[in-house]
């Protein structure tokens, strides 16, 4: 029952926002009286918090197995990127609620959501740091990690299940773009300054 309520309220928050959705409207949508509704969800804020945390925990649980492996860092990066976009393909609209509406949570709830986001970011940071240590790309910091995740997370706003590219294909395209962009500037400069080699004379 609670899972059904979460799904229904997520849809309401998507279309009307947190403040635009009333408790009476939620009661009607899930066919429960106010008393029964509060028994299941506690409050409107509680259910927004639960939506946000359930998505973050699910993303963590989906990503962690690909991080705790002996795979090379570039393989890990592809795997966690695919996992994230698969998650967005299934829960994309819920992510929009979690990102857009979570600012209306109380300070205590917001802090828990922020902590969960940081925990998820740390998984990506670990993989990117491993690649840097292995010499596959340059060193990264928190700004880089958030920029990378911002690119992937925005995909939830336009990616379609029936689109021409699968979530995995989009993830691979993004990773390829990232890896090209993570080459050291000095190396790129050397490549651009390197003169074209003349064709060898005919024998």
What general form does the structure show?
Answer: elongated
Structural class: mainly alpha
Count of folded domains? 2
Order of H and E elements: HHHHHHHHH
Average pLDDT, to the nearest integer? 84
Number of helices: 9
Label the CATH architecture of the largest domain.
Answer: Orthogonal Bundle
pLDDT below 50 for ≥5 consecutive residues: which ranges?
A: 191-203
- E-strand count: 0
* Rg over C-alpha atoms, rounded to the nearest angstrom: 22 Å
**Roughly how much helix do the residues carry, as a percent range?**
over 70%
Provide a concise account of the structure shown.
With 203 residues, the protein is mainly alpha-helical.
Question: In words, what does this structure look like?
Answer:
This protein is 73% helix and 0% strand. The chain is mainly alpha-helical. The protein folds into two domains: 1-42, Homeodomain-like (Arc Repressor Mutant, subunit A, Orthogonal Bundle), CATH 1.10.10; 52-184, Orthogonal Bundle (Tetracycline Repressor, domain 2). The N and C termini lie far apart (81 Å). This is HTH tetR-type domain-containing protein. Residues 22-41 bind DNA. Keywords: DNA-binding, Repressor, Transcription, Transcription regulation. GO terms for molecular function: DNA-binding transcription factor activity; transcription cis-regulatory region binding.
